[in-house]
């Protein structure tokens, strides 16, 4: 006969009984944050355990989920999964995090960690949620943090905060970084990559490893401690930022070298020890442009390479505009007399996220030069916050265009009939346009 198990941290029940209890719903779970990463995570937890409350301060989000709806768009399988889970009672939502905390034994936090104007990590949202959790934290509860934070946050900030709010230290705390991309969240959570777990003590690591072993079909990598797990997530972003900066800097040598740098990069990457990323018009999103500051501005080390990489990547929107101006000048056209189509406002194809998108500074620079900027993006309903007029892709044919800049390679742009325009100056910021059979003057970043 199996033992009744309601908490995992510090449990002396056999692990097989702990696993069975988690999968049967005896161990209630609360997931804090039902955004584009949080709702898929809550759904997978509910699909496995059958006993999940999702907490979010946005009442509209809560009402949508409790009605069986899905506010997160373009996530294959998620709307159907949420509807099924809500219908059978395995998933519900609340706008009262403290109430969710009072009933849960496993607390999973996946809320945003923005940066301040001074480019320091803003932990205010995370701290607020953790205080709510702490007020309802019972002995034996496990807190799992999935949102990206500066290394040492769990150890130095969250553990003391939880202990003070709870009035005891008989809880587990682990960091388990999300390794999820928009558009494939369910597949990623369920096991596209190994899951990393690390706790503030050995028992926290053990309990978190047990939980995620039920959620993922991939392996669970238990690292030495929570700080190591936090560093893993940040280091993944730092690697990409530095690598992209290398590619972007190499791209600026294209004209002086007189070669196609993209071709050189692609060929260099056939050697197994070389993996240079692709250059482009800039780096956006809620991850790569921000994570470096979780190290640069949180610790005393100089971080010269990280700072330089940020400077290089932040310079690419300016490089893109300078390139367009130079190519317009070669055609005898002043940027102040042009109408420019800005193709793509989101930071990557197929997603609605515009945070830190290079399209923002590109539009601002073009507008400051006197250009009329027309923004096209099939993911967005408007161009609010951009120095541009939002138009549909079809409207472009009715406008007297002089130039175009491709910022985001949405697949919809493959259907543009480029021969329908008078000769344009085109800057391809993503190496995705094939205009060889047209009369347009085309400059591809990294290829010339």
Question: Can you walk me through this structure?
Answer:
The structure is a single chain. The protein is elongated and about 80 Å long. The chain has 3 domains: 15-224, NAD(P)-binding Rossmann-like Domain (Rossmann fold, 3-Layer(aba) Sandwich), CATH 3.40.50.720; 235-309, N-(1-d-carboxylethyl)-l-norvaline Dehydrogenase, domain 2 (Orthogonal Bundle), CATH 1.10.1040.10; 316-444, Rossmann fold, CATH 3.40.50. The chain has 448 residues and is of the alpha/beta class. Helix 5 (97-103) crosses helix 6 (124-135), helix 10 packs parallel to helix 14 and helix 14 crosses helix 15 (359-368). The strands form 2 sheets. An 8-stranded mixed β-sheet has the order 3-2-1-4-5-6-7-8, sandwiched between helices. A 6-stranded parallel β-sheet has the order 11-10-9-12-13-14, with helices on one face. The chain is built from 15 helices and 14 strands.
